[in-house]
From TrEMBL:
<protein>
    <recommendedName>
        <fullName>Formamidase</fullName>
    </recommendedName>
</protein>
<dbReference type="Pfam" id="PF03069">
    <property type="entry name" value="FmdA_AmdA"/>
</dbReference>
<dbReference type="InterPro" id="IPR004304">
    <property type="entry name" value="FmdA_AmdA"/>
</dbReference>
Amino acid sequence: MPVATKLKKTSNEIPTLVRVDPSQPGETQANIHTRWHPEIPCVATVPVGKPFRVECLDYSGSQVHNDDNADDIVHLDHDSDHHLSGPFSVPGSMPGDVLEIEILDVTPFPDHNWGYCVTAPGLGSLDDEDKETLVTKSIWDFYGNETSSRHVPHVAFQGRPHAGVIGTAPSKKLLEHWVKRESDLEVATAGKAGCSLPQPKGAYVGQDLDDELREKIYREGARTSPGREHGGNIDIGLATRGSRMYLPVYIPGASLSVGDTHFCQSDGEPTTAIEMAGIVTLRVNIIPQGVQQLCMKSPMYRTSPSEPIYRDRLCFTGLSVDKDGNQTNQSGLLAYRNAAFQAIEYLISFGYTREQAYILLSAAPIDSRVVATANRPNFVVSIGLPTEIFDFDILPRVNGITDDKKRVIQGPALPSVRVNGKVADGFNHEH
């Protein structure tokens, strides 16, 4: 009788380097930081070439709640954006190297299967001085990789879960350069650029530090609002599971951080993505002297074979002409805004409010493309609405649009919120 061969067991258990509690405030938790600085101590060491997990808070650090009241948005503390997990030491990495970061998975917490979008005056890139954006919150529920919202009715779509912020620590020299160039821009624009310059208010590092070092980091640390050469808040919706990020290394060990997890985001993200607390699974490798090899000036990424693709899109184009009809010289942002405003007006014609349309252009897997740049003086941008995400027909018809135009107005609305004594009536507009 043959003797059974005893199979050797192998383990594919993936270590979790940081754990967080998404129900508790970020400023009460260890291994979290809200600034970029080369002297923030690393909280763990990355197993190079092997998978590891990182638990992340939402960007607000648990300030937003799953309810039908936007008071938490009115009182949101943006001085503490973003609550990042880490930093992590990548052994063997040196300045001039590049980290190849494989995004193996991004998921919500099993017992925290929801996210949110926000609109507020001055928050997004589509604010119009003639139409003040209201303070609103929409909650999105997750069903596997599908999401829908009780506050934005008649849509459901597949998500593109990703980390909005992933970056390495700057060197002291690079940090000083960031501060100078952003300070110079604030002066040149009389503050209109809206750069978030270093300030201690809202700064947080969850590690034990001596008072002198903590004060230094809080005073000098760069805010996490913009994306920069090191990565940071680059908000690439395509960087979902199966994609790869390539980030430069500026200090020994890299000091990699990750956070601001999203369930889905449009190309362009004019306000907020579907923000969520999430669990990120990564694998990191090192490309020695990769900055020179790859001719890298800023981060690179490789798209994912698992990205959900909606092929039937209704596309709106925008030119770099301002609302008064004045021609600008190839203004890409203006062209994007013009395309977005067309799409918003079109969605409003079906009964959506301006804020609901604004949210859809930020949260849904919407395709934005630079169509043409060589045809001076105009810059052409397009925004494509996936037709399949709506449960009614949004396509133009030769015989006119049907009564479906009146359906959305009957959807759920966000309760009233008072802002400085004025009622900001959420999504409950009259048309």
